[in-house]
Amino acid sequence: MRPVHELLRIVTLMNLQNKIILYAIAPLLLALFAIAFTVQYQATLLGQLQHATIEKAYRATRDTELKSYVALAEQSIAHLYDSGRKDAAAIKEAKAILAGLNYGPDGYFFLFNLDGEVLMHARQPELVGKNLWDLRDDNGDPAIQKLVSRAIKGGGFEDYMWRKPSSQRSVSERKRAYVVVLKDWNWVLGTGVYLDDVDAALAKVDFQVSANIFDTMLWIMVIAFLSVAAIVWGLMLNIRKRDEADARLGVAEKKLRGLAQRFIHAQEEERSRIGSDLHDGIKPMLVVIKMKVEVGIERLHGKIRQAFPPQNVFKEATDLVMDTLEELDRVIRDIIPIDLERLGLVEAMNRLAVNMRRGSTAIEFSAVGEIEHLPITFKTSLFRVAQTALHNIVRHAAAANVAVQLKCDSREARLTIEDDGRGFDVDRVQGDPDRGFGLRNMELRAESVGGRLEIKSSSSGTTVLAIIPLT
Question: Where do the TM regions start and end (predicted)?
Answer without folding.
Answer: 20-41, 217-239
